[in-house]
C-alpha cells in the first residue's frame, strides 16, 4: 500500500466557510456526505471491526464448536493464554512461522526480488517481458492452482524436479516439508518485491552510478555505496509489508495441510486446526488475538515510517 | 575484455537459472491438460481436447466456476459502488474526524486478515445464519476489501479537478447526478482498477469460502480445486489439470487486459 498513503491533503485544512464551496464542489454538505460514507462504514464495522474486537472476548471464554461449552460458554479469564504458554503445539507453530517468514519473505523474496530488479534494470524488450511475465504469473495465479502445481513438481516418483535433478524417489514434502513451503512461498511472492525494487531503482540517479563507475567502483561497491543508501526506505517498506503478508499467509495449508507430523504447522494453520477442526474456538480465538497484536505492532511501525517519509 | 565476457556469461547464467526456477513449476499446467493420459511428469502434449470434454461432464466443475463468478462480480459491484461514494464524500467534504478515520481504515485493512479473523468470522456467520450463503460471503469479503479500496480510489478523487463539478452545479444538477454523470466518467480508470483488484482477490480467495460454504453445490472453484486433489484416493489428473487451467485463464486474461490498457502500474496494495 505504498502509494495509497499520501498524507492527508493540506488543501482541505484551510477550508473556511467562504472557501468551502471550492472544495465541496458538488454541494454535498455534511449530511449527504455522511450518507455517502455510511454504507461502507457499516459493512466495515460489522464484518471487519466487530470480529476483531469480538475475537478478544472469545479468547477469554471456553467456547467450543460442540458440546456443553458450545451452549453455555464460561468466562475463563486468561486461561487460554496460559494454556498457550505451556502448549508445545503453539511454540512449535511459532518457531515454524518465524522460520517461514525469515526464509521465504526476508531472505527468499527480498533477495530474489532485488536480484531480478537489478538484472533487468537497464533492459528493454523480450527478455525483460518474459522474465517479469513468468514471475508475475506465479504471483497472480489462484493459490489452489499453484499449490497443486507444486504437488506435481515435488512428486517423489514422477515429479519434474526429481527428474531434472536425477534423484527419483526423493520425498521433498515428507523429508523436507519446511524447505518445500519456503521455496514455494518464495516462488509465489517474489513478484511484489521485484516490482517494488524495480520502481525504487528507477529513482537512483544514473549520474551517481556513472561517477562511481568512473571512480573505479566495482559492481558490489556501486550497490553498497550508491544504490542501497538511495533505496533504504523502499527496503524497509518492502520488508515490513511482505513479513506481514507472509505471517498471515494460509497458502502452505494448500500444499501440506500442516503435515507431515505438524512439521509445517505455521500459526495460520494451527489456528485453523485447533479452532475449526478440533472445535476449540476459545483457545483458537486467544491465538488469533496474539496474531492480531503482532500484526498491529508491524503495521504501526510501517505507518510511522510512511508518516516520516511524507 | 575477458572481464566483460565473463560478466556477460555470469549475467545470462543467472537469468537462465532464475527463469528456470519461475517457469518449471508452470510447465505442467500448460502441458497436462492437452495430454491424453497426464501424469505428474511434464511431457510434450499430444494435443487432445478429450480432457475438456471430461470437465463438461463433471458434476461440480463448471458450476464452481459460475459460483466463483457470482462471488467475484457481486463483491466487485458492492466494493466499487460503496468505496466510490465513500471516497468521494471523504475527498470533497471535511467530515469531523476524517483524518483519524482514514488512518484507522488503513491500519485495520492491514492487520485484520483472514487468518487473524477466521474464528470470529466463522462464529459471526453462524450467529447471523450466513453459513452456506453467497450473499453472506459477499458481504464478509466486501467488508474486508473496502478499507483498502477506499484508500486507492480516494487518491484518484483527490487528483481530479473540481471545476467540472462546479459547472454542473451551476446548471442545477443534484449531487447524485453530479457523481453519476461528472465524477464517475472522470475517475473511471480508478474504478476499473478497484474492480479488477477486487475480482482478482475474490477469484483466488480460498480460506473464506472454505470456511463458510460447506454445500458443494455452492463452493467456488478455489475450494473445488482443493477438494479434487485432497479427497478420495488417486487424484484424477485429467480433471485437475484441465480444471486448473480453466480456473486460471480468466486471471491471466484480466492481467493482460489491465497491463495493456492502463500499463501495469504499481499499486503496492494490489494483492493481499
TrEMBL record, chain A:
CDD domains xref list: TM_PBP2
Signal sequence, start to end: none
Alphabetical list of Pfam families matching this protein: BPD_transp_1 (PF00528)
Membrane-spanning residues: 36-57, 96-119, 131-153, 165-187, 231-247, 281-303
Residue stretches making up the ABC transmembrane type-1 domain: 95-302
Record's protein name: Sugar ABC transporter permease
Chief place of localization: membrane
Membrane topology: Multi-pass membrane protein
Location of this chain's protein in the cell: Cell membrane
Superkingdom to which the source organism belongs: Bacteria
Family statement drawn from the similarity comment of this UniProt entry: Belongs to the binding-protein-dependent transport system permease family.
Lineage of the organism: Bacteria, Bacillati, Actinomycetota, Actinomycetes, Streptosporangiales
Keywords: Cell membrane, Membrane, Transmembrane, Transmembrane helix, Transport
InterPro entries found in the cross-reference section: MetI-like, MetI-like_sf
PROSITE patterns: ABC_TM1
From TrEMBL, chain B:
Record bears the keyword Cell membrane: yes
Membrane spanning residue stretches: 9-30, 69-90, 102-122, 134-153, 190-212, 239-258
Record SUPFAM superfamilies: MetI-like (SSF161098)
Coiled coil ranges: none
Keywords, ordered alphabetically: Cell membrane, Membrane, Transmembrane, Transmembrane helix, Transport
Primary localization: membrane
Pfam families from the UniProt entry: BPD_transp_1
Entry membrane topology: Multi-pass membrane protein
ABC transmembrane type-1 domain residues: 65-258
Compartments it resides in: Cell membrane
Family of the protein in this entry: Belongs to the binding-protein-dependent transport system permease family.
Name of the protein in question: Carbohydrate ABC transporter permease
Species assigned in the record: Nonomuraea ferruginea
Lineage of the organism: Bacteria, Bacillati, Actinomycetota, Actinomycetes, Streptosporangiales
Amino acid at each position: 500500500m505504498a502509494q495509497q498513503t499520501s498524507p492527508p491533503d493540506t488543501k482541505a485544512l484551510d477550508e473556511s466557510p467562504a472557501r468551502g464551496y471550492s472544495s465541496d464542489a458538488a454541494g454535498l454538505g455534511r449530511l449527504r456526505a455522511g450518507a455517502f460514507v455510511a454504507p461502507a462504514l457499516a459493512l466495515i464495522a460489522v464484518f471487519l471491526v466487530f470480529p476483531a474486537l469480538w475475537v478478544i472476548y472469545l479468547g477469554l471464554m471456553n467456547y467450543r464448536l460442540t458440546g456443553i461449552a458450545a451452549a453455555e460458554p464460561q468466562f475463563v479469564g486468561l486461561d487460554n493464554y496460559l494454556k498457550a504458554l505451556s502448549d508445545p503445539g503453539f511454540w512449535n507453530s511459532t518457531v515454524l512461522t518465524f522460520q517461514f517468514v525469515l526464509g521465504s519473505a526476508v531472505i527468499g523474496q527480498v533477495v530474489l526480488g532485488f536480484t531480478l530488479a537489478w538484472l533487468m534494470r537497464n533492459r528493454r524488450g523480450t527478455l525483460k517481458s518474459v522474465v517479469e511475465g513468468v514471475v508475475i504469473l506465479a504471483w497472480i495465479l489462484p493459490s489452489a492452482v499453484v499449490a497443486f502445481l507444486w504437488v506435481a513438481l515435488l512428486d517423489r516418483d514422477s515429479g519434474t524436479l526429481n527428474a531434472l535433478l536425477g534423484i527419483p524417489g526423493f520425498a521433498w514434502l515428507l523429508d523436507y516439508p519446511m524447505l518445500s513451503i519456503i521455496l514455494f512461498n518464495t516462488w509465489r511472492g517474489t513478484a511484489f518485491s521485484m516490482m517494488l525494487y524495480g520502481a525504487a531503482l528507477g529513482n537512483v540517479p544514473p549520474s551517481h552510478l556513472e561517477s562511481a563507475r568512473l571512480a573505479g567502483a566495482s559492481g558490489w561497491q556501486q550497490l553498497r555505496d550508491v544504490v542501497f543508501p538511495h533505496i533504504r526506505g523502499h527496503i524497509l517498506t518492502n520488508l515490513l509489508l511482505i513479513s506481514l503478508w507472509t505471517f498471515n499467509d494460509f497458502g502452505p495449508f494448500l500444499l501440506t495441510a500442516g503435515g507431515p507430523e505438524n512439521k509445517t504447522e505455521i500459526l495460520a494453520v494451527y489456528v485453523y486446526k485447533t479452532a475449526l477442526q478440533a472445535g476449540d474456538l476459545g483457545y483458537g480465538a486467544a491465538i488469533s488475538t496474539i496474531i492480531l497484536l503482532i500484526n498491529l505492532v508491524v503495521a504501526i511501525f510501517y505507518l510511522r515510517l510512511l508518516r516520516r517519509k511524507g | 575484455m575477458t572481464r566483460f565476457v565473463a560478466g556477460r556469461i555470469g549475467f545470462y547464467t543467472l537469468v537462465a537459472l532464475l527463469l528456470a526456477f519461475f517457469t518449471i513449476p508452470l510447465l505442467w499446467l500448460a502441458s497436462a491438460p492437452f495430454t491424453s493420459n497426464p501424469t505428474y511428469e511434464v511431457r510434450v502434449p499430444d494435443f487432445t481436447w478429450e480432457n475438456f470434454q471430461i470437465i463438461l461432464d463433471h458434476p461440480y466443475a463448471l458450476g464452481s466456476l459460475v459460483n466463483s463468478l457470482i462471488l467475484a462480480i457481486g463483491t466487485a459491484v458492492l466494493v466499487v459502488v460503496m468505496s466510490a461514494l465513500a471516497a468521494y464524500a471523504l475527498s470533497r467534504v471535511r467530515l469531523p474526524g476524517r483524518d483519524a478515520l482514514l488512518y484507522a481504515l488503513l491500519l485495520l485493512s492491514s492487520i485484520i486478515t483472514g487468518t487473524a479473523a477466521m474464528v470470529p468470522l466463522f462464529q459471526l456467520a453462524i450467529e447471523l445464519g450466513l453459513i452456506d450463503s453467497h450473499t453472506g460471503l459477499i458481504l464478509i469479503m466486501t467488508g474486508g476489501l473496502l478499507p483498502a479500496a477506499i484508500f486507492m480510489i480516494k487518491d484518484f478523487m483527490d487528483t481530479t479537478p473540481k471545476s467540472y463539478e462546479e459547472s454542473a452545479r451551476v446548471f442545477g444538477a443534484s449531487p447524485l447526478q453530479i457523481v453519476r454523470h461528472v465524477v464517475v466518467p472522470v475517475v473511471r480508470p480508478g474504478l476499473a482498477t478497484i474492480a479488477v483488484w477486487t475480482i482478482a482477490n475474490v477469484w483466488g480467495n480460498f480460506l473464506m469460502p472454505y470456511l463458510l460454504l460447506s454445500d458443494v453445490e455452492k463452493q467456488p472453484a478455489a475450494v473445488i480445486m482443493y477438494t479434487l486433489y485432497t479427497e478420495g484416493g488417486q487424484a484424477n489428473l485429467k480433471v485437475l489439470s484441465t480444471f486448473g487451467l480453466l480456473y486460471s485463464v480468466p486471471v491471466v486474461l484480466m492481467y493482460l487486459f489491465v497491463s495493456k490498457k492502463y500499463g501495469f502500474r504499481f499499486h503496492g496494495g494490489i494483492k493481499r
